[in-house]
Design a protein that fits this description.
329 residues; mainly alpha; DNA polymerase, domain 1; hpI Integrase, Chain A; 3-stranded antiparallel β-sheet; 3 strands
Length: 329
């Protein structure tokens, strides 16, 4: 730099020559053994490199956005997800932003402790909400890292509360028979296809509601669960095990499916209903009767067998399982 310009710059700064010399000495002391044996020119070049690196690091640290902006932009980036997923993301973001002082925190400056405190204040009353809130907060920081608004994801260092799995007993053969009997009547003929998928293919209710006509292969007795319509985002093909009397023209899902499904259950005498009980029923009776866990895993759409063993397979007699499958004949 030109000497005249340097002198003018020094005059405009609230620093004297002694201050500048002290800063250089602190820099040299910080470099430690790296300055040993260096000449004047080499030492000056090393100090310049340190200064440039420091300025770059400072610029990067200041390149961030408030937490509120990062949160909403991360939600907008996933606008292509299913409406229910987007709705849940918005819900959990709103709950986090209700915590006082969080909205304007610089994303890059947020610590593990601040993130943990945020989760406890927003979702501490429920382990389920805490897990969902943690997943949402983790995704916000992951998006921020891609945008270079932060360098790390502090949420990764926050433990996930263990899920307390409730035991879900499979439906008894008498209960299955009641559902099948109601579906045989004219009133619920449009629900035969849905009931066969729930009970005898292990398809989730939300997945049944999304099935389109071109997902059904009647000739091959198969139904395609496409990735964009599955819960986990992975596609699979399940056998279409038709209920007695079910015809090709019955293979459709009524528009008001959720209401029709509730009505069928009430007509079959169910005043209380456990979510996913049909899926658990299918898995338990399939495992007991066919004893082919690899095939069951594929039909359930699981990555491995661990979830089947720990959550879905309840001890069931082979006689009860055989009776369950005979109902299809």
């Amino acid at each position: 730099m030109n000497t005249r310009i340097t002198k003018e710059l020094m005059k405009s700064l609230p620093l004297g020559g002694v201050d500048a010399a002290r800063l250089v000495l602190e820099c040299v002391e910080g470099l430690g053994d790296r300055v040993e044996g260096l000449g004047r020119v080499e030492l000056m070049e090393l100090v310049r490199r340190v200064m440039r690196a420091g300025m770059a690091a400072l610029e990067q640290q200041e390149q961030t956005v408030p937490f509120e902006q990062a949160a909403w932009e991360s939600v907008a980036a996933r606008a292509g997800r299913r409406p229910t997923t987007t709705r849940d993301l918005r819900h959990y973001v709103r709950r986090m932003l209700r915590v006082e002082g969080v909205a304007q925190l610089p994303l890059r400056a947020m610590t593990v402790g601040q993130c943990r405190d945020l989760l406890h204040k927003a979702f501490g009353h429920s382990a389920h909400s805490f897990r969902k809130g943690r997943a949402t907060l983790h995704s916000i920081f992951a998006y921020g890292m891609r945008r270079e608004w932060c360098d790390a994801n502090p949420v990764a260092r926050i433990d996930v509360p263990p899920a307390e799995e409730k035991v879900i007993e499979p439906l008894s053969n008498e209960e299955v028979a009641r559902l099948n009997e109601v579906a045989q009547g004219r009133r619920f003929r449009d629900m035969r296809f849905s009931l066969s998928l729930l009970l005898y293919s292990g398809v989730r209710p939300a997945e049944v509601a999304r099935i389109a006509p071109d997902d059904v292969c009647w000739e091959e007795r198969q139904v395609i669960i496409r990735p964009q319509k599955s819960k986990t985002g992975g596609g699979r093909v399940v056998p279409l095990r038709a209920l007695p009397g079910m015809r090709r023209q019955d293979c459709h899902v009524p528009r008001n499916w959720q209401n029709r499904w509730h009505a069928l259950r009430r007509a079959a005498g169910f005043s209380r209903w456990v979510p996913d009980v049909c899926r658990h029923t299918f898995a338990s009776y399939h495992a007991a009767h066919f004893r082919n866990l690899s095939e069951l895993q594929l039909e359930m759409g699981h990555r491995d067998l661990s979830l089947l063993r720990t959550r879905y397979m309840m001890p069931t007699s082979r006689r009860a399982a055989a009776r369950f499958w005979r109902m299809l004949k």
